[in-house]
Amino acid sequence: MKRVLRVDPIACDGHGLCAELVPERISRDDWGFPIVDGDPVPDALEKHARRAVAACPMHALRLERRP
Amino acid sequence: MSKATAETTVRALPGPLPRLLLALEGGHTPTLARHLAAYGSMQESRDLVDEVEAADLRGRGGAAFPTAAKLRAARGRRRAIVVANGAEAEPTSAKDRALCRLAPHLVLDGVVAAARAVGAHRAVVAVGSRSIAERAALERALAERPTRERVRVDVASVSPSFVAGEETALLQALCGRLAKPTLKPPYPFERGLGGRPTLVQNVETLAHVALIARFGASWFRSAGTTDAPGSALVTLGGVVRRPGVHEIEAGAALADTLERLGGLREPAAAYLVGGYFGRWVDAREARSLELTPDVLGAGAVLAFPARGCAVVECARVLRYLALQSAGQCGPCTFGLPAIAGAAEDLAPGTALGEQRLAQLLRWAGQVRGRGACRHPDGVARFAESAAAVFADDFAAHAGHGRCGRPHLGVLPA
After folding, report:
1. Burial of B47 per CB tally in 10 Å (0-12, 13-18, 19+)
2. CB neighbour class for B294 (10 Å; exposed up to 12, middle 13-18, buried from 19)
3. B46 interfacial to chain A (CB closer than 8 Å)
4. What span, in angstroms and rounded, lies between the C-alpha atoms of B93 and B296?
5. pLDDT tens column, B62-87
6. Inter-chain contact A31–B331, Cβ cutoff 8 Å?
7. CA nearest to A37 within chain B
8. Residue numbers of B between 346 and 365 with CB closer than 8 Å to A
9. Which of B113, B140, B178, B216 is the most buried (most CB within 10 A)?
10. What ipTM is given for this predicted complex?
11. pLDDT digits (tens, 9 = 90+) for B371-392
12. Which residues of A touch B336 (CB under 8 A)?
């Protein structure tokens, strides 16, 4: 069971907390919007990923299961 | 699979072409009688989805998605509805409107066949609000159709904006909301118009379905190539001898197809294939590029004249495309105007030319794949392919100011 981070680009407003909390997986483009690495989140990063999902003020970030 | 019975005098379709444009007889009203004389009647087919799959029909709206897969996905769901997309806001494309105006019964046959195949009893044909003649032709045709067709078809007018052609934006517009794309999933076949499972298909795709329902998959594949079977409508533009809508066999090479359709008025520097979310192709690649459904995209081929300045025209189109953004997603809302701005600076020339060109390419790469719809992807492809194909022109503009050629205004926007 893999987990990947995914952003809803419509809900996202570019606040950037996600990039701050999971820089290993999320960077920001030239306008401040998140570029999300779609690779599976390793166990070591899962806690950080969940914190980022919770922190997003727009609820735009999700941690999704992939088979 | 039962083929159309020979009770009506069906004129055997001559050659591989024409197919979709068969019933045209120089300006006559496309009546039901003329339609039946050209094609015969369409029998109800139980195995239509299988036949469409065997035909390997791909969508003709731009995404070239396998039509059978869409039909299967929508089938068996309660209260399904069919939406025929005839909105065609792509400026370089005129084929869908031509089809609605000139062969409305073929489109409606396809709508009814698709509806039966997925178990839907309601359908909507969407056209742009400025497409008065197209709406009139469809409504006139609807009035002629027999009531025993157990599908209710309505014609609806939607915003003529570029983004309204995107399937989820179209569904929003049909609900009376602003034509803005929604995130997928959920897909229209799961939750679409009014929450109902919705099959969205381009009108040309449905016209092909109508013919496959009559003549079968083998017939469909008797035109085109093994990898790209069937025929397709293309809108020729730019410096071609015969601009307008033509029907071609899919899979043929671009250069060969253009020759067969009358060739060029003057030398072309490059071709824009697939409309504004297609890509630029140079003359050398044109000789080998096969016009498969995914290459054809919106079915538009535009020949750009060698004597014109491509940079200034691409800048104009990039600004147009930036203004078409629905404004929902950051990378698109901010990135597209940035790309357009960089291109606009390159057009007249600027001391910052090298920097602006580098930014244009960087930003094109950054916006790709980062919106809720494929609009930023289309812009990225347009910009990157232009910079590659017109590399010398862009270098001239980035370097010493300009290429020296005039702005001819060939690209519509």
Report:
1. middle
2. middle
3. no
4. 11
5. 999 999 999 999 998 999 999 999 99
6. yes
7. B370
8. 362-363
9. B113
10. 0.96
11. 999 999 999 999 999 999 999 9
12. none
Mutate to test the interface with B, among A18, A30, A65, A66 (most CBs of B within 10 A): A30
Nearest-CA neighbor of B386 among B314, B304, B278, B316?
B314
Phi and psi at A66, nearest 5°, equal -125, 135
Kindly report, residue by residue over B86-141, the tens digit of the pLDDT.
Answer: 999 999 999 999 999 999 999 999 999 999 999 999 999 999 999 999 999 999 99
Residue A11 distance to chain B (closest CA, Å): 8
CA nearest to B271, candidates B225, B310, B226: B310
Alpha-carbon distance of B319 to B181, in angstroms, equals 20
User: Any CB–CB contact under 8 A between B372 and chain A?
Assistant: yes
pLDDT digits (tens, 9 = 90+) for B288-343: 999 999 999 999 999 999 999 999 999 999 999 999 999 999 999 999 999 999 99
Torsion sign, CA atoms B41, B44, B49, B55: negative
Quote the tokens at residue B73: 């996905």
Predicted local confidence at residue B46, as pLDDT: 75
Contact yes or no for B261/B236 (Cβ under 8 A): yes
Q: List, in order, residues 6 or more apart from B227 with CB less than 8 Å away.
A: B251, B290, B292
